[in-house]
Each structure stands twice: as C-alpha cells, then as structure tokens.
C-alpha cells in the first residue's frame, strides 16, 4: 500500500511543468543620497572650567609674540557666560567672564578688540556687570598680569541685557560686599554672588562624596515618602496636608480615606527601618518639614536630611558603636573629598579667608588616621558643665534637661577640640523608638542607647540611636503606628540602628556660614513665603 502511494506521488510530480529559474540581476547603481536641509549643529558650549583645564602648560620663556603666533592655532570655543567686570577702552574691551563653573572669585578675562572679525564692538551701554553673553574665542597666554591665560574673543553677542542702574547685588570684587540681609531679600539673584555660589558648589561636592561613601559601604539608596501619616518625632510640629477643594466646592471629602490625616514628613526613619529589614543597609536624602517657630540661625522649617538605617550585630554598646562608626565615616568622607578636590578646595579657601587655622583644623578632623572621635555620656557631660559653670555662656543644665547649643559647642571645643559623640541621654528627652538601655536604676534616671554628634561653632550635627526591636516595649503606641510598632517587631525584627544628618548644618559648618538661611537657596522659615 505504501509503495503504490509513493509511485502515484512520483507520477503526479513529474507531470508538473515548473518554469526554469530566471537569472537575477543585481543592480550596482550608486544608492540615492539624502541631503539634510537643516543647519549644521552649533559648536558645543564649553564651560570655563573645562576650557582652563585644557590649557597647555606655560614655559618660562613664553612671550607675547609667541602667544600671538599660537593664538590662531588654538581651537575655537563657544562660551555662554555673564560679565562680572567690564572695562572699555578705545579699541579694546576687557570682560571678566563667569559661568558658575570656576571656584571662588575666579573669572576668565576676555579680550575683545576692534580688529576682531565682527563688524564692531557692541554698544558699551549694553556691556555692563551682570549682562549675559554668547561668544566664541581662543584661549591664549595672557599679555597682562594677574592671569596666566585670557580668551581672545572673535565674536560676541549680548543675549541677556541687564538694567545696570537698578541691579541690586554688587558683582565686582571692588564693590562693597552685599550684606546677608540684602542677599536673602533677593534670593532669586543670590546664586550669582560669588560666596553663595561657592557654598552651593561645596554642597554639591559634599552630596557626591556622601553618596559614593554609602555605595562603597554597601548601602542602598532608597526613596522615602514625603506624604505620611506618621509624626516620627512625636513633637507635634508637623504640617498637615489637605486637598484644595476650591471656593465653590461642596462638602469636602478627605483625599486620603485613612483615619489619620496626612502630614509632610518630619523624618524618613520609620520607613527606612522597614526597608532595612529587607535590604540590610539603606540611606536616603530628602526634604523634611517641621512647623517650629524658632527664629534661630540653626533652624529652618524645610531642610534636607541624610538618613541611614543599618542592621547591627548586637543590641548592646557594641551595636551603638557600629552606628557611630558609620556616622563618622559619612562626615569624614564629605570633608576629605571637599578638602582634596582641587575646585572645591579653592571654594573653601575663599569661604574661610582670614580663618585659615580653622580650615587646617578641619583637615586634621577629616583625616582617617585621626581614629575614632571622642565619646562621653550625657551624665558625664552634665557633671562637667556643672563643674565648669563659670566658663559657660549660660547656666549648666540639671540632669534630665536638654543641652543647649552653647553647651554643645563648649563641650565639642573643650573636650574634643572637634567632633564629640554624646551618648545615653535620658529617655524623657528622646523619641519613643529609641532602645532602652539595660540594667538601669530608678525610672527617673533611665536612659536610651542614642547619641548626638556635636561640633565646634555649631552644636548638634547628627542624631542617632539604636531602635527598640522588642515588641513589648512598643505596645503602648497609637493604632496608627501598628504597622511599625507591632508588625515590624513580631515578624522578625533584627536589631538595628540609624541616624539623621542635617545637610544644611553640615554645609554651614564646613563653609564658615553661621546662618542656615545663607546655606539654603530659598530658605523656608516662619513668616512670609515669597518664592
């Protein structure tokens, strides 16, 4: 049967007349070219810092004639900057250029001659301090004193005129420096002022160094919520968030259906504890909000916090030491990077001008060879303050009272001559989540496993603690915190601890800026909200 079927298939196939394959010709004609009608891409913008970093080294025998000969061979650069100083003469104009990338008070002198390829010099009325410019030119050795290089400008265009008569912030180095009160009044213009720009660049450097340190130490950066139902610190100084229903809206319905209202976060700590149970070591950097009416130079109602949480190997003094080690590592990383990064170092040298000895002290503190920072208990600190009462700016505290900023500064300066960890505060001074110390005496003298890091000239910089991992110690907390006080504790809560570092306080301490309103670009304090 199978053989007969195969014969029939062969017969039917042979009966088919299939056409012979035709030859395929491959065309080798030139492919069609498409021409773009768009204008060529403009030359990329070069930052002044990049431009000066690319300069060749000068030899002692460099002469003006050699500079002129080499100027035409130097590459052409496109610069976007503003003028700090303008000096106009008959055939040449000197412009001190700044674009925010150069450290301290540094500028690059631009030289614009009437013989440049452009038809004529711009209107001198337009060239004033603060004006925005787009220009192209070549970097060459300078003929004058005060700078090694200058920019030989070939084309210049005024892109942002300025009303020089009413410009409120002095830009020239010869002008009287603007007061801090004036600069705060014009916070939207303040970043153009050299000192504030240096503070902002230093802040950026600190954040980079801290991020790098955490990465190397095995911490995962996480995002914590800004809207929360928790008052982490328990002080009631929270901003409540409600939906704007409009003037003609009917009965309001809460946006969130939970029994508790929504707040702007005071701290990310509770959420970080939950994240640490899965990731081991976590950190975040984000804004925090506290509705406190303090008008001191150390307080803002919106500020940024570096917060970290880590699992610890035990729940005793050794565990607290582990968290303190992490704290010291983070702070030293920020200091060391800034002091050894060429650009940031120049910013710090300008900010500490006249206080070079203090800058040298910071350098020794930043050194990893300095060893662990000194530590003393709260009880010992109170005893020392009581014995040195006559040297203090205010009366010493009794046991159980808070240490004031002046107390903290005095202790940091006279006990450690630098950063100082103060540990084991009374439980009544600290939030509910801090772990109670073991083997304590009477209830009124009980302490918790915590620390404050205090530094000279500032006071408290960091606050941290071990977290209470024992369920029976947290059962009295409100129902709104069941997820934290009960669930996290009964479903495997490994001993852990963490800390919060005020970023503005760190920047203020390391940049010689006493008032935190001069660290934040747009400071938020109680009173009018302009921006």
From TrEMBL:
Enzyme class per UniProt: ligase
Q: Which SUPFAM superfamilies match?
A: Class II aaRS and biotin synthetases
Gene Ontology terms describing biological process: asparaginyl-tRNA aminoacylation
Molecular function terms from GO: asparagine-tRNA ligase activity; ATP binding
Give the CC-aspect GO terms.
mitochondrion
User: Region annotation Disordered: residue ranges?
Assistant: 22-41
Instruction: Give the E.C. number(s).
Output: 6.1.1.22
Signal peptide position in this chain?
A: none
Domain Aminoacyl-transfer RNA synthetases class-II family profile positions: 200-523
Q: Which InterPro entries match?
A: Aa-tRNA-synt_II (IPR004364), aa-tRNA-synth_II (IPR006195), aa-tRNA-synth_II/BPL/LPL (IPR045864), Asn-tRNA-ligase (IPR004522), Asp/Asn-tRNA-synth_IIb (IPR002312)
Q: Which keywords are on file for this protein?
A: Aminoacyl-tRNA synthetase, ATP-binding, Ligase, Nucleotide-binding, Protein biosynthesis
Q: Name one Pfam family in it.
A: tRNA-synt_2
Q: Which domain of life is it from?
A: Eukaryota
Record family assignment: Belongs to the class-II aminoacyl-tRNA synthetase family.
**What PANTHER family does the entry give?**
ASPARAGINE--TRNA LIGASE, MITOCHONDRIAL-RELATED (PTHR22594:SF34), ASPARTYL/LYSYL-TRNA SYNTHETASE (PTHR22594)
- Can you name this protein? asparagine--tRNA ligase
Which organism's genome codes for this protein?
Acaromyces ingoldii
């Amino acid at each position: 049967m199978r053989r007969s079927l195969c014969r029939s298939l062969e017969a039917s196939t042979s009966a088919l007349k299939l056409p012979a394959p035709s030859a395929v010709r491959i065309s080798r004609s030139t492919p069609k070219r498409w021409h773009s009608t768009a204008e060529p891409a403009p030359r990329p913008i070069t930052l002044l810092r990049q431009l000066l970093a690319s300069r060749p080294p000068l030899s002692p025998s460099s002469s003006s004639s050699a500079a002129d000969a080499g100027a035409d061979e130097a590459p052409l650069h496109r610069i976007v900057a503003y003028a700090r100083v303008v000096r106009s003469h008959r055939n040449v104009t000197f412009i001190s250029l700044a674009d925010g990338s150069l450290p301290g008070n540094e500028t690059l002198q631009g030289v614009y001659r009437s013989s440049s390829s452009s038809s004529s010099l711009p209107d001198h009325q337009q060239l004033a301090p603060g004006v925005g410019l787009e220009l192209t030119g070549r970097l060459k050795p300078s003929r004058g004193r005060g700078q090694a290089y200058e920019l030989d400008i070939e084309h210049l265009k005024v892109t942002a005129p300025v009303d020089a008569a009413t410009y409120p912030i002095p830009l020239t180095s010869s002008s009287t420096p603007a007061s801090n009160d004036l600069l705060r009044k014009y916070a939207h213009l303040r970043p153009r002022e050299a000192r504030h720009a240096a503070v902002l660049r230093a802040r950026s450097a600190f954040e980079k160094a801290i991020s790098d340190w955490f990465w190397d130490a095995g911490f995962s950066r996480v995002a914590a919520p800004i809207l929360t139902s928790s008052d982490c610190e328990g002080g009631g100084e929270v901003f409540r968030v409600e939906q704007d229903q409009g003037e003609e809206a009917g009965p309001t319905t809460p946006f969130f259906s939970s029994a508790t209202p929504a707040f702007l976060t005071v701290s990310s700590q509770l959420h970080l504890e939950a994240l640490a149970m899965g990731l081991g070591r976590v950190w975040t950097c984000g804004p925090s909000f506290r509705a406190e009416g303090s008008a001191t130079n150390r307080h803002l109602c919106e500020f940024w916090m570096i917060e970290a949480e880590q699992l610890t190997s035990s729940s005793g003094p050794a565990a607290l030491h582990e968290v303190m080690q992490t704290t010291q590592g983070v702070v030293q990383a920020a200091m060391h990077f800034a002091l050894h990064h060429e650009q940031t170092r120049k910013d710090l040298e300008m900010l500490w001008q006249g206080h070079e000895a203090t800058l040298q002290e910071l350098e020794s503190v930043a050194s990893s060879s300095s060893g662990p920072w000194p530590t003393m208990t709260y009880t010992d600190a109170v005893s020392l303050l009581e014995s040195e009462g006559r040297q203090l700016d205010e009366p010493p505290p009794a046991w159980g009272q808070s240490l004031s900023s002046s107390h903290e500064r005095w202790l940091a300066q006279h006990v450690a001559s630098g950063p100082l960890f103060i540990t084991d505060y009374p439980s009544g001074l600290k939030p509910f989540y801090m772990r109670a110390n073991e083997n304590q005496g009477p209830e009124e003298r009980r302490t918790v496993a915590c620390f404050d890091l205090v530094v000279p000239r500032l006071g408290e910089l960091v606050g941290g603690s071990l977290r209470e991992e024992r369920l029976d110690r947290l059962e009295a907390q409100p129902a709104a915190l069941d997820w934290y006080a009960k669930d996290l504790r009964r479903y495997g809560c490994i001993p852990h601890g963490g800390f919060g570092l005020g970023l503005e306080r760190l920047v203020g301490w390391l940049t010689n800026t006493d008032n935190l309103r001069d660290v934040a670009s747009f400071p938020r304090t109680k009173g009018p909200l302009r921006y």
